[in-house]
Amino acid sequence: MSESDTWEIINDALECKVPKRIPTFCLGADWDFMERFIAEVGFTYEEFRRLKKDRIPFICPTHIALSIKLNIDFAWMTALGQIIWLDEYNEVGMMHGGRFKVVSRDSTYEPPEGHVKRPIPHLWYLKEGLTTKKAIQNFMEKKIRYPKYEFKNFYKLHTVCENKYNLIISGGLTGPWENLHFGIGFGNIAKFWRKDRKFLHEINDFYIDIALKGMENLVNIGKPKVIMIGDDYGYNSGLQMSVAMWRELVKPTLAEHVKIIHDSGAKALLHSCGNIGELFKDFVEIGLDGVESLKPKNNDLVGLKQKYGDKIALLGAIDDTDMLKYSTPEEVKKSVTQSIKDLGPGGYIPGATNFLLDQPVENIYAMLEAINEYKL
Amino acid sequence: MIIMSEDKKDLEGVCALAYTALWQTRELGFLKQILTSLNIKQLKILFYLEEYLPGALITLDGEAGDFKIEPVNSPDDVEYDGAIIGKIAPLIKALEGNVVIKGLWILLSRKVKLKGKRNLLKFGRVILRGAV
Q1: pTM, whole model, 2 decimals?
Q2: What residue of A is the nearest CA neighbor of B22?
Q3: What tens digit of pLDDT does each residue of A64-89 get?
């Protein structure tokens, strides 16, 4: 594969060098954002047909077609894995044993005159599907894997996106902490941590085996240049678990993932929401190349940049909850420019801190303009 | 026939999944072109999975470029051009073991019935050409 200019600037940013220009990042977009984007901007039928011909997914929440339309440099597509049957609930579950729900619901968006207001789809993780020890043991009898066709399709997708649309797509897998608590829930983790830690490690090892085999297949079949593991460790106020628990249950697996990724020649990133500053020292120690999300209100980003900025790249960090939602486009541009001054220009790839949701479309364009117009 | 927008919020299960699969294509305004290109004036497809009731009757309207989803409590209550009716659990369990032959056996043993296969294929082409 030829090395594209887009890859060059992303690679430089991830190696904490100053790139030729500041790249843009988009994690994806949920249906709330697509409702307003379609009503105000949309796609032409020719664009739509071209993207469909190239098998570009329009699926929320990653929505690669939107990243192409917005001329984004760097996006994310995560593998979903197989679905399973949850005997305890008599329903379909995700591969880690978590339950999800699909509904149609009203949104808060008021479309422009002439547009019909309709409900929007909503699909999200609901709660753990393995609530008892027996259910967990039954789950561990199953043959669970990431289907190889997902990685074959991903190879075709990221190749066409880089060569035809100048978009680098990071491959993704669910991380060790999310697999564990999506499947058995925070309550069971806390209970087994105190009363039956051996069993907690047994179920964790089961997930680790699935994840590491998945990662081997992702690097060997999907062949991405970057992999971003999705594993939220933080609430707004702090970590979801103690640092000691993270180091015992999560860190070794994350380190193994990083080793597999680096051995393949790719870069290793982590997406983790919330206040995660306490873990940065460990992130650097295991060799992560970058961390994404980084809501500025929850993290001392300038402090993290000063301390670790030459060792690990920062991605995201443009507040999507308040600033992008409530500011004027001019205010957005000033805020984004300040973020690049604070966290860049080397080792920083700016973007909204999570999937685009209910922010005004004009503010997203203002964010991208500010990044593209930034003078190095 | 012209279907007016009668979309309901609070759809769940199969109905919500069908709504999700078609929503973006219609919002983009491309459902009419896709249905016209496939020569579909009207197509009624029923998904009735016994573990996920109610079932969903999807009506595609080629003239209006619109669709309607109606919850269905019994497959005998409605008319359709194509249908998938049966239990989904055995199929998912078979796929857990990645046993393709077992999955085919489930279809052949009629635990999942496919009715109006050509129209089901037409519906599949609508989904493939749509914004998914």
Answers
A1: 0.94
A2: A121
A3: 999 999 999 999 999 989 899 998 89
